[in-house]
Amino acid sequence: MKIINRIMTSSALLVFLSLVSLLAVVSIIIFTSPGDPGKELLDKNVFHSWEILDNFDASTGDWNALNAQLDLYGYKLLVLEGDNIIFSTLSDSQGWIINSLKPLELEQSALAGRAQEMTFAAVAKGTYSIFAVGGRVDNLNVFSGFLQPFLTYCLIVIAVILLLSQLFTRKMVWRILRPLNALSDGAKRIENGDFSKPVVYPGKDEFAPVCTAFNRMQEHLLKEREKTAFYEKARTELIAGISHDLRTPLTSVKGYIKGLRDNVANTPERREQYLAIAYKKACEMDALLQRLFYFSSLETGNLPLSLDREDLGSFVRRFAENMHDELDYKNIKMIVEATSVPHPVKFDGEQMRRALLNLVENAVKYANTKSLVLRISVWRERGMEHLLFADNGRGVPEEHLTRLFERFWRGDEARGTKNGEGSGLGLYIVKYIVEAHGGFVTAKNDNGLQIKISLPCGKEENL
Q1: Burial code of 366-395, b = ≥16 C-beta within 10 A, e = fewer?
Q2: 80 and 50 in one domain?
């Protein structure tokens, strides 16, 4: 059964039972109220019978003729003389009436009354007591005169109230179903891929916040769909770019190997040159494949972490020493500042090294300054170990700061993929690695771009 039918049926049943119960209670109160519930009235023909008796000449003794006249009005004749029955048309089963009338002493010439449930008229004629016994006594309740119209009016009132109840209930149900139908239509639109139309509900009742929440969900789904489409496009471009970039060194490796097989490099020096170039190109291919493998690990959430307790300050110093020759060749200066206190952190050294390498590569590519200086600071504050990576470059526009760590995001779309770089994954990978260690990363402009990594402190032990 539909909900509207259930509500209509329940409403009608509730109103009907309520009114019937009210009517029953009123009737019980009326008919069981204390005091005289009504007046007992004599049969209406008793006065005709009394008139016949009063006009009868008892000296004739024609009791049959008198009985015939009374019979016209449904009365029977009883004639007593003292305690003796002179004439009676009462049946044997009505002997109780005779016993009830015998004790009566007629002090008046005529009398009308009742004997239990029977009406009688009596006259005294000489030595005779003549009775006309007839119709039953009617009990006329004070409410009997209006009981039937009262019940009729009650039924009419019940019908009207039921009708009004159904009308108001239908209106209420319509108000309930209106937002539900709107939400249902909205869900069908979303199912069909249409996110453009919001649910319009002008009401201010409990359904208003539900419709508002539905519209917010629809907006969120639209943004997520657009983001997914963007990610999918960027992912496709990344894989296509890496595939294209793999083809170039692969072609070079094949060419140089073919030159060696065809004896084109016919001198030891030339063969050494061919092998060196082929090895370099193979290393480029390995770097591209590593990038693709790492991206796949991020996508599937299977980034391996091997956590060891280590001093973050010492780790940063070793990283700077290992990068010294490469950075010095590019005329880049790296400065490490770490407080003398221990900085114990539980982290994966290989993944943290990758994060720092990505920060260096990002600064080298986008700092846009001739004399690049990289500064790494390490300190402890409020139960966290902080690492600040700062450069002296141009920074980034303020409106781009909140999007720096988004996947595939590039502030300058002109920075296309070149040699598998510029894919918009570098800082996203940094954020992913830091959050996998239970930390967080932020960025701001301060005489260049500053990226702060915060990690949970470990216990101070012998490191």
Answers
A1: bbeeeebbbbbbbbbeeeebbbbbbbbbeb
A2: yes
Dist CA 440 CA 432 (whole Å): 9
Whether 390 is in a domain gets the answer: yes
Q: Are residues 318 and 413 in the same domain?
A: yes
49 Cβ contact partners less than 8 Å away, ≥ 6 residues apart: 70, 73, 75, 121, 132, 134
Number of independent structural domains in the chain:
4
The verdict on 343 and 434 lying in the same domain is: yes
* Boundary-marking domain end, from 262, 281, 300: 300
213 within a domain of the structure (yes/no): no
The CA distance from 417 to 283, in Å, is: 19
Pair (419, 343) in one structural domain: yes
Secondary structure of residue 315 in the 3-state scheme: helix
Q: Is residue 255 part of a domain?
A: yes
**pLDDT, tens only, 106-119:** 655 566 776 666 78
343-395 pLDDT tens trace? 999 998 888 998 999 899 889 888 888 889 999 999 998 889 999 999 998 88
CB 184 within 8 A of CB 213: no
Structure tokens, 134:
């007839």
- Gyration radius of the chain over CA positions: 56
Find the DSSP H helices in 35-126: 46-55, 63-71, 95-101
Whether pTM > 0.70 for this model: the answer is no
Q: Report the chain's terminal Cα–Cα distance, integer Å.
A: 72
